[in-house]
Design goal:
heterodimer; A: alpha/beta; Rossmann fold; N-(1-d-carboxylethyl)-l-norvaline Dehydrogenase, domain 2; 2 domains; 11 helices; B: alpha/beta; 8-stranded mixed β-sheet; globular
Chain lengths: 239, 287
């Protein structure tokens, strides 16, 4: 049982500024569940059935659902139409600029889905409400929001990271080196905070592939074509 | 593996750094160059560096004295012919390197391992004109600048390299505190291939030269990603021309694979003479 449900059971009136929608694969899943927000697990809970008043009472809806691009857009459109509340969405794996254009109440975007070594996270806001929500997200994840000009496609850090990891997979396909030696080379040759396969183990191949596919589909540029081996690993991982 | 005598050919920044590291391992080291002045200057720099490290308490006076006794500058003709290992760190020119290795092949003892510190020339190309025995004792040992500090050594196996030799060297460097990484003879080896997109993607993200976005990308990669430097600051440090050369070389070696394609901003920066810190103008202004 999550924090807000426990309080409700004990007879407390739940007054929360935010409704959070999250999938269990999110690295911050526990942290959000421990927060003072009303949190719905997209797979476990019925996030809308009989609970719409929670959304109407909230200041904003915070979306951290990791679903495929098409479903994400429909989902955000539904939230937009149904509740007419500011929405702030984790768009790590998506074409953020396009979503912001399409969804009237999407007032902020951020990226916390990928494991990162730094103490900030990328954030974008179009309203004061969104800025406040992003500050609140920062308190939950223990990082500072770093305001960026635009989310682009998959923000900056995730986009760069998937390209480094994809290349490591191409090198592995070529039999060029081992994952351990590639990790070691990048950490001790150019001072990277982690090696490509260390990042992979923390983020998971499925999300890396999803962002590469998004980049490829949006730009049509073959530089974003995912390595066969990465695709294979992502599919095995999913299975 | 027992390495007691080493020769470094080339007394530039890399050669000097590699020599300094070997000396600090207690190994008798010779440094050779066609330019005598360069050799003298390299030895002076090493000596100064050891004095500073002694002041900082990193080495004792006895250790520094041993280091100074263990480094010798020589003419290329006068090098130890019984050295266990020779590492070449001269100009990145295939013809000049090939001629050097042919000469070393003829003069050095049978046991001597010949190694190149090249970052861009295929190791097997440099080995192809060597004697059959030497081909198996030829490989790439790619150090990173500054060599006494940076822990990585890429151990590159050429077509003919004896696998046991590469494994033995891997163990030897590991024991000496380096972080060796083994790889096949492939364009850019590990680092210069995998790092390409750290720079390449930064250009695609900003799309055009935009000072606000340049600063933003650098800040994101440091504050969010935990990288020590952002891609644009790092390019300014390396030299935008040097970075473009490496990008172009890897891109061409992979038959212009789009993943490695250089960006027009890089070319424009080089054409306008903004090469980074060395020209005081790059993605940032250093005046």
């Amino acid at each position: 049982m999550v924090a807000w449900e426990e309080k409700q059971k004990k007879g407390f009136t739940i007054m929360s500024d935010y409704v959070v929608l999250i999938t269990s694969d999110n690295p911050w899943y526990e942290k959000f569940n421990e927060s003072d927000a009303i949190v719905f697990d997209m797979e476990r809970d019925e996030p809308f059935e009989g609970r719409k008043s929670e959304y109407h009472k909230s200041k904003a809806i915070i979306d951290l659902a990791n679903i495929d691009s098409e479903r994400k857009l429909s989902f955000l459109k539904y939230l937009d139409f149904e509740f007419q509340k500011p929405i702030i969405s984790d768009l790590t794996l998506y074409w953020g600029d396009f979503y912001l254009e399409q969804i009237a109440n999407l007032e902020g975007a951020f990226s916390v889905f990928f494991h990162a070594e730094g103490n900030s996270f990328e954030s974008y806001h179009e309203s004061e409400t969104a800025k406040e929500a992003l500050d609140w997200i920062g308190t939950v994840v223990g990082k500072k929001p770093l305001s960026v000009t635009t989310p682009g496609i998959g923000f900056t850090y995730p986009r760069t990271l998937v390209m480094i990891i994809n290349e490591a997979f191409y090198a592995l396909e070529d039999g060029m080196s081992s994952p351990e030696d590639m990790d070691r080379a990048m950490k001790y040759g150019v001072n990277y905070p982690a090696g490509p396969f260390e990042w992979l183990s923390k983020i998971g191949p499925k999300s890396i592939l999803q962002l590469l596919d998004e980049l490829y589909n949006v730009t049509g540029d073959p530089r974003y074509r995912a390595s066969r081996l990465l695709r294979l690993e992502a599919n095995q991982y999913e299975a | 593996m027992n390495i007691k005598k080493v020769v470094i050919v080339g007394a530039g920044t890399m050669g000097q750094g590699i020599a300094q590291w070997f000396v600090q391992q207690g190994i008798q080291t010779e440094i050779a160059d066609i330019n005598e002045k360069q050799v003298r200057s390299a030895i002076e720099s090493m000596s100064k560096s050891w004095d500073k490290l002694k002041e900082k308490g990193k080495f004792t006076s006895e250790e520094v004295e041993t280091f100074n006794n263990n480094i010798q500058g020589v003419d290329i003709i006068g090098i130890y012919t019984d050295a266990d290992l020779v590492i070449e760190a001269i100009v990145e020119n295939e013809k000049i390197k090939t001629d050097l290795f042919k000469d070393l092949d003829a003069r050095m003892a049978k046991k001597t391992i010949l190694a190149t510190n090249t970052s861009s020339i295929p190791v097997s190309s440099l080995a192809k004109e060597l004697s059959e025995d030497r081909k198996s004792r030829f490989l790439g040992l790619h150090f990173f600048n500054p060599a006494p500090i940076m822990k990585l050594v890429e151990i590159i196996e050429g077509h003919w390299t004896d696998k046991n030799l590469a494994d033995d060297l891997y163990k030897w460097f590991d024991e000496k505190g380096k972080k060796p990484a083994k790889c096949k003879d492939s364009p850019g080896f590990i680092v210069n291939r995998l790092a390409r997109n750290f720079y390449g993607e930064a250009f695609r993200i900003i799309g055009q030269e935009d000072q606000t976005r340049i600063k933003e990308v650098d800040q994101i990669m440091k504050d969010v990603g935990g990288f020590k430097m952002g891609p644009f600051e790092l390019m300014d440090l390396i030299g935008i021309d040097v970075n473009l050369d490496v990008s172009t070389s890897v891109w061409n070696s992979f038959y212009q694979e789009p993943r490695f394609a250089p960006h027009r901003i890089q070319k424009f920066m080089v054409e306008s003479g903004r090469l980074g810190r060395k020209t005081k103008k790059g993605f940032y202004d250093y005046e």
